[in-house]
Amino acid sequence: MSIRVAVVDDQALVRSGFAMILDNEDDITVVAEASTGVEAVKIAATERPDILLMDIRMPEMDGLEATQSILNEADWPVRIIVLTTFDPDEYIYQALRAGASGFLLKDTPPEELVAAIRAVAAGGALLSPSITRRLIGRFADRLAADTEHSTALRSLTQREREVLAALARGLSNAEVADTLFVSATTVKSHVSNILSKLGLRDRAQAVVFAYESGLVTAGEGDPG
After folding, report:
1. CA distance 114 to 63
2. pTM of the full predicted structure?
3. CATH number 1.10.10.10 given to 138-212
4. DSSP state of 53
5. In 3-state terms, what secondary structure has residue 51?
């Protein structure tokens, strides 16, 4: 089944460029384009895409508000990937908090764009560990640990907390497995349990949760 994608950006050349790349793939179909957040909300409701590529800075309604609106109202498993020129800012951090599954640089090579779409459509999160650590660390360390999040941590076992902390530091499942001396399959099971217990959509939200709950702090365990 083809992955249905909508491209949202106020720059026509960016939209058409992404659309052209994606439409060349047999398993991906661009079903709609939008130039504002308002249009994004409308096409999401009418076209019900699997993935939205979402710019942040747009007229009428920015990508952050559009992301929140779409994910709050969606009754289908839509995923949102934030587009950025990578000037890491609080808007991107807020988009991850709102439920975006990750972010892509606008100059991402075509093959990486296609791979990213497939990965997120399959239920993964699009996170560059080093960039994500810097991005989340830059803003999460301004916040006091969220009491509600801290309370929710109590629902996790000690091993699940260890896995969550490792994810927040940017480790892959295989790296977590090596660190904790368990199998990758076991780690995958722990990640699934963590998402279920905490009511999170994917690894991206899990990483944000780990910082906001105080489970990890910016710079902690960061190899640099």
Report:
1. 21
2. 0.73
3. yes
4. E
5. strand
Per-residue pLDDT tens, the chain, 224 aa: give them: 799 999 999 999 989 999 999 999 999 999 999 999 999 999 999 999 999 999 988 888 989 899 999 999 999 999 999 887 765 566 777 777 788 888 888 888 899 899 989 988 887 766 655 566 666 666 555 555 556 777 788 899 999 999 999 988 878 888 899 999 999 899 999 999 999 999 888 888 888 888 888 888 765 544 33
Distance CA 118, CA 46 (A): 22
| 3-126 carries CATH number 3.10.25.10 | no
CATH 3.40.50.2300 domain extents, the chain: 3-126
Q: Coil, strand, or helix at residue 176? A: helix
SS3 31: strand
